[in-house]
Design a protein that fits this description.
seven-stranded mixed β-sheet, binds pyridoxal-5'-phosphate, 33% helix, 2 domains, 14 helices, three-stranded antiparallel β-sheet, alpha/beta, disordered C terminus, Aspartate Aminotransferase, domain 2, Aspartate Aminotransferase, domain 1
């Protein structure tokens, strides 16, 4: 029996060497590597400012502090998210107003968010912000969120924990004002690889990266440690030149996670990104005790011993040891992304025919990061429930997870705000159906095959033959695309 863990990080010799270099340098805490990681991350996803911190949760907290969230105010938060998105609202004594998700992609249902804003306002409550979460790495309804935010004067603090990188098209709109200009350096005009305009199988796509391996094959460390930093990476540039926008627009602040299982990792870590100079300054200061200048400069020759505390800040700064890992992970982000797209394609090919499950769909105007691969069980066609299905997978050595039990169904939010499970009906109905399958760059095609064969075996042993094939499923299964980026 094979063992396929739910997640394995892809750490190679480059990360190890960079950490050793950091240890030898004497800069263990925030220092030059953190600054470099901030610059390179900002460049990669086209943000004006990037502030590296020790988690995405910290980034979200700093973001809400920077926009001036006050006790008693409301913030729209999707119920289909991780604890962090709502808990940071509670840190201020503010109220997370939970909104439902849509069936297509589990992202925020903006129409429901609109209803929730209206009823909060009607009850005399002020609503300060909205926190869209791009579930699993597929960007949600950007235009809808922007329009809702404009109508009600809400700040947008985006939880992009899963999105390094993810892209979207927004009815031909260019990046919002203030977003870093996307430079066409011409440097890549000789790069032959282009994202395909065809919706063919991913394996037919030419590699967009000529100097890096197009697949990982358990050897991410084949990237030469000496490779100079080059950004934007060619496939990113091709996408950007062809009308795709990187995640982050039109948010006031976007927050990313580098937790161990994320698309790139620093072990623990996060980044808060913004085009707004004031927010950036405030987050930087508050990330380190409210000290009014970068503390690491205190110990350099250009720095001085003098600093001022302007507010009771937090201890959220990223250490150089973590940034060292992040720098090398960032250089592999394109390779990792490509591998994730390939693996998602392999899952689709192998599971497409299984009628008892619903595969994730990708809108034609989205490029998924494939942080998560979430399937839905058609429970009316199976004799077992989700917990038993997961148990069967575990018995076959396949690690899985569930993203997530909706927040309003957790005791704290249920009791504190009086939510009944059915109050957010879509999330409530979807929750018993979802299972997240293993997906990470170091998986082989054989690993995917094994997971798929295990699923097929479980389904064939537990098929509910009596279920009428015509019985409608309570929620629609959209037939979007398969996730191939289109150019032009
Ligand atoms: C949607 C979402 N937001 C925020 C976080 C928190 O990230 P971190 O662990 O870096 O604080 C996570 C972590 O998994 C997440 O999935």
């Amino acid at each position: 029996m094979l063992r396929i863990p739910f997640y394995k990080p892809s750490i190679g010799a480059e990360e190890i060497n960079e950490v050793v270099d950091t240890l030898k340098s004497g800069w263990l805490t925030t220092g030059p590597k953190t600054k470099q990681f901030e610059r390179e991350f900002a460049d990669y996803l086209k943000h004006r400012h990037a502030i590296a911190v020790n988690s995405c949760t910290a980034a979200l907290h700093l973001a809400l502090e920077a926009i001036g969230l006050k006790a008693g105010q409301g913030v729209i938060v999707p119920t289909m998210t991780f604890a962090a998105t709502a808990e940071v609202v509670r840190y201020f004594g503010a109220r997370p107003i939970l909104a439902d998700c849509r069936a297509e992609d589990f992202n925020l249902d903006v129409a429901d968010a609109d209803r929730k804003v209206q009823s909060a306002l009607a009850a005399g409550q002020s609503v300060a912000a909205i926190m869209p979460v791009h579930y699993g790495g597929q960007i949600g309804d950007v235009a809808g969120v922007r329009s809702l935010a404009r109508r009600h004067n809400l700040k947008i603090v985006e939880d992009a924990a899963h999105c390094c990188p993810a892209y979207y098209k927004d009815n031909g709109k260019k990046a919002e004002d203030g977003r870093q200009k996307i430079e066409d350096s011409g440097q890549w005009s000789v790069v032959s690889g282009q994202w395909s305009a065809d919706r063919g199988p991913i394996s037919n796509l030419p590699s967009p990266i000529s100097h890096l391996p197009s697949t990982i094959n358990h050897q991410p460390s084949t990237i030469n440690h000496a490779t100079p930093y080059i950004n934007p990476q060619p496939s990113t540039l091709n996408l950007l030149n062809n009308g795709w926008l990187p995640v982050g627009s039109p948010a006031d602040i976007s927050c990313y996670s580098f937790y161990a299982n994320k698309t790139i990792t620093t072990g623990e870590g996060g980044m808060a990104c913004t085009a707004n100079d004031e927010y950036a300054d405030r987050m930087r200061i508050m990330s380190l005790h409210g000290i009014s200048r970068d503390a690491w400069k205190r110990y350099t020759t250009e720095g001085s011993w003098y600093y001022e505390i302007i507010a009771p800040g937090f201890k959220y700064n990223m250490a150089d040891i973590a940034a060292a890992i992040g720098l090398q992970q960032l250089r592999k982000a394109e390779v990792f992304h490509r591998r994730r797209i390939e693996l998602a394609g392999q899952y689709r090919e192998r599971l497409n025919e299984v009628e008892e499950i619903v595969l994730p769909q990708v809108r034609p105007d989205r490029i998924h990061s494939w942080h998560l691969y979430v399937i839905r069980l058609k429970l009316d066609r199976l004799n077992i429930d989700r917990a038993q299905f997961i148990e069967e997978l575990t018995r076959r050595g396949v690690g899985t997870s569930v993203h997530w039990m909706p927040l309003h169904m957790h005791p704290y939010y249920g009791k504190t705000y009086g939510y009944a499970p059915e109050d957010l009906p879509m999330a409530w109905a979807l929750y018993p159906e979802i299972i997240t399958l293993p997906l990470y760059p170091n998986m082989t095609e054989g690993d995917v095959e094994y997971v798929c064969e295990s699923i097929k075996d479980i389904v064939s042993r537990n098929r509910r033959w009596t279920a009428a094939k015509t019985s409608p499923h309570p929620f629609p299964f959209p037939q979007w695309g398969t996730g191939w980026p289109e150019v032009g």
